[in-house]
Write a structure and sequence with these properties.
There is one protein chain. This protein is of the alpha/beta class. It folds into three domains: 2-152, Beta Polymerase, domain 2; 176-304, NAD(P)-binding Rossmann-like Domain (Rossmann fold), CATH 3.40.50.720; 339-418, no CATH class. Helix content is 54%, strand content 12%. It has a six-stranded parallel beta sheet with strand order 7-6-5-8-9-10. The two termini are 12 Å apart. 40% of the residues are buried. The mean pLDDT is 87.
C-alpha cells in the first residue's frame, strides 16, 4: 500500500521545513537510503514541502520509521517533529499527490512550477532505481492530472508562481522597478523564472550570481545582464536594490555581518531581500538592520491573496479531475491485490482438469484424436464456466478483498504462493 509522509507550508513554517529539504545533489544518496530502509519510494522536495511516497505493501505503521529515516538523513538530533508531519495511507496519499500536482495544494494556488518539480522528483527516483511499476504508474497519473488541470480549467490563468509573486512583492515595496538594480542569486529554475519576470518589468540593471560562473553567464546573456562569481557576492550586494535568492545551498550564504557591511556604504538607501530558497539563503537576523527588508517564502502568501478568489472558482473543476483520476488509479491498484489469487485459482483448476482428463483418457484407449480433443474442450469449458462467477466477484470494486480471503479458504490456495 502507498504510504505518504509530508511536511509542508500548512504544517510547519519555513524555519522547520528547511531542515528537511533535499537539494538535487542530496537526492541520490537519500533515495538509496530510502530504498534500503523502507522500500521503493520517491522524495518530493520543494520550497513548500518535503514528501516521501513509499510503496509499503508489505509494511504496517511506517510513521515512526519514516520520521527516523528523515531525521537521520538530514542529521537532525534535536527537536520533536511528529506534530509537523502528516501521514497518509493509499487513498488519501493518491488524492494528495494529485492535488499537489494540480497546484491546489500550493502556497500560491494554481502555480505552475509544481508540475515540473513532481516530474523531476520522479526522474530522480527512477535514475536512483528507487521506483517500481506501481510508483511509475502513480506518478505518470499525477503528471496527467497536472496537465489536465492546466489544459481543461483556468486555474493557471489566475495563478501566480512563487517567482512571479516575489516580483510582485518587489514592486509593492519599492514601486517602479525601472530604475532599480536587481541581483539574482542562483541560476537554478526558480532563479531563471524570477529573472525573466524581472526582465519584463524593465529593470535598469541585472546582475546574476551563481556558484558556477558559467551558469550565471548563460542566464546573464539571455537577459542582457552581467554575471559575477559567488566570491564577488559582497560587491554585487552593494550595488543592488533588490536581491532575489534561490540557491540550493544547505546553509546561509548572506549573513548579518555581510549585510551590515553593505548597508554602511548605502547612505540609508533601502535594500530588499526576497529569499525564496528552502533551506533559506539569508540569515533572518538581518531583519534587525535599519533599511533592510527581508521576506522569505512564507511571506509570499499575502502577495497571492489578491487573486485567490478568482483561482478558487476554478478549484471545483480541478477537484473533479483529481477525483476522476484518483478513482481510476485506485481501481487499478485494488485490482493488483486480486491478480495473484485469480492466477493461482486458474492454475490449480487447470492442474486438476488435466489430471482428471488424463485419468479418463487412460481408460478409453480406443478414442480417436478428434474424440480426445472434444473431451479436452468440454473439460475446459466446464472449468471456465465454474470459475466465471468467482473471478468476477474477485474483480469487483466493493468487497474484492473479502472474496480473496474466501477464495483462498474455499479452494485451498496457499497465501504465500499468491503474493506478488
Amino acid at each position: 500500500m502507498l504510504f505518504l509522509a509530508t511536511i509542508n507550508q500548512k504544517t510547519a513554517p519555513v524555519a522547520v521545513r528547511e531542515r528537511f529539504a533535499f537539494g538535487a545533489d542530496e537526492l541520490p544518496r537519500a533515495l538509496a537510503g530510502l530504498r534500503q530502509e523502507l522500500g521503493h519510494g520517491v522524495i518530493l522536495s520543494t520550497c513548500n514541502r518535503t514528501e516521501l511516497y513509499v510503496d509499503a505493501r508489505r509494511e504496517r505503521d511506517l510513521s515512526e520509521r519514516t520520521l527516523d529515516f528523515l531525521t537521520e538523513a538530514k542529521g537532525l538530533t534535536d527537536g520533536v517533529f511528529d506534530d509537523r508531519f502528516h501521514f497518509y495511507g493509499e487513498t488519501e496519499a493518491v488524492h494528495h499527490l494529485f492535488r499537489v500536482t494540480a497546484g491546489i495544494e500550493s502556497q500560491v494556488l494554481g502555480e505552475a512550477e509544481i508540475l515540473g518539480q513532481v516530474r523531476s522528483a520522479f526522474i530522480a527516483a527512477t535514475d536512483a532505481s528507487s521506483t517500481n511499476p506501481y510508483l511509475a504508474r502513480l506518478f505518470h497519473s499525477a503528471i496527467r492530472v497536472g496537465r489536465r488541470a492546466r489544459n481543461e480549467t483556468a486555474i493557471g490563468r489566475h495563478g501566480l508562481s512563487v517567482s512571479a509573486a516575489a516580483v510582485a512583492l518587489a514592486r509593492k515595496t519599492l514601486g517602479d522597478l525601472s530604475t532599480r538594480c536587481v541581483l539574482v542569486i542562483s541560476a537554478g529554475e526558480a532563479g531563471k523564472l524570477t529573472a525573466h519576470a524581472l526582465q519584463d518589468c524593465g529593470v535598469a540593471r541585472m546582475v546574476v550570481v551563481s556558484r558556477r560562473l558559467e551558469r550565471a553567464q548563460e542566464l546573464a546573456a539571455e537577459l542582457a545582464g552581467e554575471a559575477m562569481s559567488i566570491d564577488r557576492l559582497g560587491e554585487a550586494l552593494g550595488c543592488s536594490d533588490i536581491v532575489i535568492t534561490s540557491s540550493g545551498s544547505p546553509s546561509f550564504i548572506i549573513g548579518q555581518d555581510m549585510v551590515r557591511d553593505v548597508m554602511s556604504r548605502r547612505d540609508g538607501c533601502p535594500l530588499l531581500l526576497i529569499d525564496i530558497a528552502v533551506p533559506r539563503d539569508v540569515d533572518p537576523a538581518v531583519r534587525g538592520l535599519d533599511s533592510v527588508h527581508l521576506y522569505d517564502i512564507d511571506d509570499l502568501q499575502s502577495v497571492a491573496e489578491a487573486n485567490r478568489r478568482a483561482r478558487q472558482k476554478e478549484s471545483a473543476a480541478v477537484e473533479a479531475i483529481v477525483q476522476e483520476e484518483a478513482t481510476r488509479f485506485l481501481d487499478w491498484s485494488r485490482s493488483l491485490a486480486v491478480v495473484p489469487t485469480i492466477s493461482a485459482l486458474r492454475r490449480e483448476s487447470e492442474k486438476m482438469r488435466r489430471a482428471e482428463v488424463a485419468k479418463t483418457l487412460a481408460h478409453l484407449p480406443d478414442l480417436t484424436g478428434e474424440e480426445k480433443q472434444r473431451i479436452e474442450s468440454l473439460s475446459e469449458a466446464i472449468v471456465k464456466k465454474l470459475l466465471h462467477r468467482p473471478i468476477s466477484r474477485l474483480k469487483a470494486k466493493d468487497g474484492g478483498q473479502t472474496y480473496v480471503e474466501a477464495a483462498r479458504e474455499l479452494f485451498g490456495i496457499d497465501e504465500k504462493a499468491t503474493d506478488p
